[in-house]
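Can't paste images in this forum, so I'm doing it all in text. The chain is below; anyone willing to post the predicted structure tokens underneath?
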Amino acid sequence: MIDEFRSVEAESCYFPASSSYKNRNTVGLDDRMEELLDLLIEGPTQLSVVAILDSIGLDKTAFTAEAYNSSYMKHYFDYLAWIPAPYHYDPDQILDIVAVILLPFSMFSKIKDKDYEMKKIILGEYLMTKRYLIVLDDVWSTNVLDVVQEILPDNQNGSRVLITLTQIKMITSFQLEDRENIRLDLVPTGGPLRATYQGWPFLILYHGSISLEENIEEVFNIPTGNLTFVCCKLPFHLKLCFLYLSLFPAHLEISTRQLYQLWIAEGFIPDNSEATAGKYVEQLINRGFVDARKRRAGGTINTCSVRGRCRPVLLAVAFKAEFIFFSFMDPEGKSRKNVKPINVFEKQSNFACLDDYDSHMHSLLYFTSKRDHLDPIDWEKICRMFKLLRVLDLGSLVLIQYPSGIENLFLLRYLKLNIPSLKILPSSLLSNLLNLYTLDMLFSYIDHTTDEFWKMNKLRHLNFGSITLPAHPGKYCGSLENLNFISALHPCCCTEDILGRLPNLRNLRIRGDLSYYQFLLSQNICRLSCLESLKLVNESKMPRISKIILAEYLFPHSLTHLSFSNTNLMDDPMSTLEKLPLLQVLKLKQNSYSGRKLTCGSDAFPRLKVLHMKSILWLEEWTMGTGAMPKLECLLINPCAYLKRVPEQL
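Text version of the structure:
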């Protein structure tokens, strides 16, 4: 793979960075927006499409979003929906995406298991009486347009579809009014070009400052070289991380927590540190390849996304370097046998071709929101054929029972499975997969874990719906010094013996009957001297008065983030929490406090930046002493119906 990068780097020298590409800017944005709004509102009564072409100097997604969020749209259309266009063609998936966004949940839940034709009929009937605006962002193929045209009804009341086109050459399959196919050199800059596609009226907008042909040459030819050139000039540690982002669709919100774990498992982060991975993302943001979508209160990035302009080129470079394989990029499967380190499956039918893939594959990821069931035969093939796997992420695919043969994948560093029926973590997994860094089974609720768990010295990230850990067996096992994240730990595990063996745990979510385990929790959490984030979620099988006494808790002074849910605290929590010296974020979520008064003392919460109070139903009075919360930046109160006023100090 490194040789491929060197080859690509040599080729990239013929594409010096274009000054015109970097210095292009936009003018007259207000005029462009006014024109777009006019086309959406003042156009024909027939269902029609407004297409915005990708162009240098215009962020087409941001431009479209500005129109979508305008008050004009909200007043004119009865229904608005923003739909990310899938990057591969699957009619059933497209219909499901449209239906789940447009239909009321109660209606969709009744039809989700029906066939394609029935879903289409029900969706059409629901929209027939509504004037709607549907936005499809980043459309790559006319196949998507074919399906959308088929499933959306034309109710002759001015409904619109607004699309952004990444693959500009798609419009050569559109026809002008004289029935001639569009030529790129005839597309005007500025005003709309009227065209049709399969009888569907289109209004095409191109707002580039150069001709469309020049734009395509610069965007899709030279920038390929530019981006390749820039990629090859990146420090080596950033090259792989950058190309890895080709896995994700443009503008998709990517959880940085998941991304960091994947990068670490792939071996891209030299010190296996999430802090280092976070610095890499910041560098990619500063270089203009990635957008920060959401940040946590402390300023660290929570979600990010690949910029729309980058992904087409990113895919091409990654595919050429044989770094990654997508089935939609090679429909005939001619290159499946070539060694590709990372293979991405976008639909379940891809598993039928497992025999065609090279056995040296080391990463297999399945990206889709559909919760289909994995055929046991396909699982058996994965375990038998791909014994060198380091990353196995089957996403939302449901496994009916714990899969046999997983012990063969002893090189795994990252394992994500969806096994709702799993209640026991078997010793075959724990004793054989000793190289695991990340074990993610969010939909599994584990009642019993065998002692072999304490042999997993490399484990860093443990994510379950709930997990019960075993007592430490004593001899032959040490502490899990690399484990820094657990969600969600059963409170019965909060013993001195267990928590004392997790010296570097930084993020912990505890979920269960916190009242019943009051003593364990209050006395032992303090043993986690590196703990930064703690989430306490109370779940009692029997309704009872809360016996959670926060004043008895010995919280570690390292805490920066603290969250409570359903704890129904009877006593004012502020007198205890205000003493935490480093606390920056405090979230009192639904039913966390049942009292009527909150009191913050003088100079309380010296570093608190974010305070959320949600559904504290009986709160009436809130007072603060002098100098309390001097660094507060964000206050969210929703809903606290009886709270009469916020303190004057705020």
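Residues 212-233 form the longest helix (22 residues). The chain is about 30% helix and 20% strand.
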